[in-house]
Amino acid sequence: MQGYATPLDWARHGGGETGGDQHETVNIGGVPVSTLSLQALIDRMLREAPRRIGAGMPPLLVFDCNGHGLSLNDSDPAFRADLAKADLIHADGQVIVAASRWFAPAPIADRSSTTDMFIDSLPGAAAHKVRYFLLGGTEEVNAACAERITATTPGLELAGRRNGYWKPKEEADVIEAINEAAPDVLWVGTGKPREQAFCVRNKKRLRAGWVVTCGGLFNYITGDYPRAPQWMQDAGLEWLHRMATNPRHLAWRYLTTNPHALWLIWKHRHG
Q: In angstroms, rounded to a whole number, what is the distance separating the alpha carbons of residues 50 and 269?
């Protein structure tokens, strides 16, 4: 973006053309997943989000795909309908990347873990004044996450933040707060399937450039949820680490959805 005063100026001079909305997808377990690399996804977000909000365009819905998502897509009709409304689905799980290399005509470049996507994007967001809104987690976790990323990323500007606990009758107030802040990127971390339903239900009401679902992201930033060692992430075993460190909440989920996801990958191996 060098040479332009704002990200929107950069977009107007060719950095955010409409053609950038196109991306190749491959069918993994019944879900169309983008083949974009982690860095390409970040670059696109930082480029396009300010353009969309500046031009008054509806937000781009960006959802993640992992084994849990594959299983829900097959077993939960409401989640399947919401996932189908995504503008882009990226490979949050290593098994999705591996499956693309086994069966898909074009491999997914690499894993785009939502946590990595968020952390790796912070320096660029700070440099180019791309503003984030953090929605999700408990009040304590949300506040701690906001404090940590602004303290460790000089120049980062948050548009706003809010915890992920509200009653249905309060949702209009949540939308109003987001719209008043008008973030370039809204990160929604309330967990599947609630976060996807929220995004789809409110797409036409939300004033944001990109809306990205992110599950327990804020807890990983604060350290409440420890991340797996890099070798486990690379081997596609981060789920095992998560299950071992948080068995009460995650053991049953992984023990039931992982086999189902592998079956779906095999079932849809020919697209």
A: 37
